[in-house]
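User: Okay, second chain of the day. Same drill as before: sequence in, structure tokens out.
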Amino acid sequence: MSTNSTESNGGDNDATADIASIDHGPSASEVLPPLTQFGRTNVDGTVDVLSVDWTQVALLEPENVAQWMFYLHRNQHPQTIRLLHTLAPGYTHPGDIMPPNITPQWYVYEESGLPGILMDIVSEPDMYCLESGSFKNVAYSLEILTLLSSFVLHIASPSGTEIMVAHIVQNVMDKHDRLCEALWNHRRLMHVLPESYTFRSPYLVLPGTYGRLSSFMVAVFQQFALMKELWGGSVYPFSSYGIKVHLYTWTYFPTGDYWRALTDHHVAVMANPKGPSVVGDVMTSAPHPFPEDLIKRLCLVLRDERVEGEDVYAAVSLTLRIVEFAPEVVAQVHAPLLSKLILISLLCCQRQMCRSQHDRQVCPSKYGVKLLTLSDLTHAIVLLLRLDGRPEQSHHPMAQESYLSKQLNITAIYSVTLTLAQYEEEEGTLDFGLTEFATRAHACTRVAAVGEHMRDNTIMLWHETLDTILAALTYDEEKLIRMKTKAHNAWLAYGKVFGLTADIRETTPPAKQPSRPSDESRPAPDAGL
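Assistant: Same drill. Structure tokens below.
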């Protein structure tokens, strides 16, 4: 047993839980192996480590496993890998993390502090070494991350008593910031090796493995951070490094169901007080290709028709935060890519509105997400257009592509959003959505490239939408009257910006009619994108 283990009331479990941090503990010469009945004893009374049967230790002496891991790693002993394989024998690829076969031993491992020791190990600055002869090489580091991922997944599951889970989660979360800092500092591992390169261990493949594991780890930690019942009703202060790692690994996440790594948990974390500064920091501190690669990934998600609901909202929310809090970085992105982002965002708006029309009949509860998604999309597009039109950016090639600005029919988006939002059952969601959308739509009128075009679209759609809202007010259920009245008042206020009232209908048609989508399933009034 380690000589600096702390004696306390409960014996071995408590002592193991108090093992010092790997970096700040005793030197290797001061650390002794735990006693075991499954290995030979040397003349000096110590255990012959090479003779230990790790399967028996893991099964019958689980309370000693954390101490063994501490001892083996501290002494850089080759038996460390054998112990790791004993604890996680069923993996064919570390990216395929599944919940472990739950046995009583797993609870003992967790109670004795093994997850915390694993986190200390992979947080050491000299881990992830690319030299194959180094003990702390990449293969070993990823073995530790793989096992740690299994523990985190198990801890996050509903098994076990609430008191035990809270105790273990607290121990893990206390080390989270340091782990994410290490993952961020070694993010190069996602790029330095080709996907087919194997490093010592035949089933450890980079860089996809590192990306999957680090993304998985951060996502689960986000889940922990949002479990308010564990933190006295408040959200755990999530690490800035955690947000950085999540953004970076999501950007380079292997293709496939790539959007599923970006969840509503991510959006909640990005919305915390740290969010804005962290977004700007990661955009400016990451190497040159990252900003463009992130925008490319967002384009990939927003144009994918399989992506819907909260997955779309997560991507849209991230798009807004990037444009809002890192405008100088976005301004340097290749102009055609920014044009592509605007166009894909517009198409995503149209797709979401068409789906919202269907949701009104099938699942009215989805309106809240749709409303917020359209609101954030509009805000992001407005900011992009403002960036396009700033005098100091007039040299930017984007200024030559202002025709894209005229494709933005904010009035049509707002019209459809209001028409659908009448059926939103959550009054608070409607209030927030209407306020945000109105503010952002009005901001468009101050963008020179779209002001006149926007007035033409408003003249064409305003009374049609007003009639639709008024008709709905006459026969719908009483409980929705307040909602529809709010939508009605919001639309009246919007028309007032352009000099339109319910009494006076504009008789002069716009000089040029905006194009309308040909899809017969489009909602009424037309999206006009």
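Residues 456 and 513 are 8 Å apart (CA to CA).

User: Thanks, on to the next one.
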